[in-house]
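seq as requested:
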Amino acid sequence: QLQLVESGGGLVQAGGSLRLSCAASGRTLNVYTLGWFRQAPGKEREFVACINWNGANTSYADSVKGRFTVSRDHAKNTMYLQTNSLKPEDTAVYYCAKSRLYGTTCYRAIGEYDSWGQGTQVTVSS
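struct tokens:
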């Protein structure tokens, strides 16, 4: 059974960086699109970034474009999110997810994903 586990979150000052990881066990992720989403208190879960199966296609929310970078390592069955120039509005629980379908395309909609991790908290202080 697939299990996704996020890590790397924490408390950081504005302008700082964090590297989030999403490690999978129980099933290979290599043929699927993977996504990062986040949810702030009182707000809906929103798309952050995605990467298709071979890393050739990526997509980012406008709010993080140019500051965040998504990548993946097939050998480690792991996806990463490098977050730079963090802002207080980036504070949220960050979740990783696996797509329902084989990942030739990068998907931005929550409904395209069927497996989720438990989340990792990112807090950015001003």
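The CA atoms of residues 26 and 64 lie 31 Å apart.
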